[in-house]
Design brief:
157 residues; mainly alpha; Recoverin, domain 1; 2 domains; two-stranded antiparallel sheet; 2 strands; globular; EF-hand-dom_pair; calcium ion binding
Length: 157
């Protein structure tokens, strides 16, 4: 495993992503689980090179991706960092940010609470504990009000 330069909160977020893909909770992501995650995220699997992703991420070639391999792949792809390693722009338009934010802001008050985050993630099949939800909010909450506003959300994604 190579040394990654992620902050603790970035590692927490990446671990939560890993866990949301690892549906059978065996500690590995299979290609089938990866494809299912793409479908659940309303992505077309045919738009992604899942075999290429696996061949690059599966360092020991056992057909499964461990969390450490996933973390390394995120590092290599520039995910979770302010600027991508590939130099490709990843900035979302304000409209995209607003659309995504609005999916989480269930009561329309301009903030995402831990409860709203939990409800949305639950609908996507992700069951997190209250502590995990609080940690996700804390990781993005810059002003310490225990919720995520649009500006904090935009910085996060």
């Amino acid at each position: 495993m190579q040394q990654t330069q992620f902050t603790e909160s970035q590692i927490v977020n990446i671990k939560q992503q890993f866990n949301s893909i690892d549906k059978d909770r065996d500690g590995y992501i299979t290609e089938k689980e990866f494809l299912e995650a793409l479908k659940n995220a309303n992505r077309r699997p045919e738009d992604y090179d899942s075999q290429g992703f696996f061949s690059r991420a599966d360092k020991n070639r056992d057909g499964k991706i461990t969390f450490n391999e996933f973390l390394d792949a995120c590092h290599e792809l520039g995910l979770g960092k302010a600027a991508p390693a590939t130099g490709q722009p990843t900035k979302k338009s304000q409209q995209e940010i607003d659309n995504i934010f609005n999916q989480f802001d269930l009561d329309g008050n301009g903030f995402i609470s831990a409860q709203e985050l939990g409800q949305v993630l639950s609908k996507q099949g992700e069951q997190l504990t209250k502590d995990e939800l609080k940690e996700m909010i804390r990781a993005a909450d810059l002003n310490g009000d225990n919720q995520i506003d649009r500006e904090e959300f935009a910085r996060m994604i």
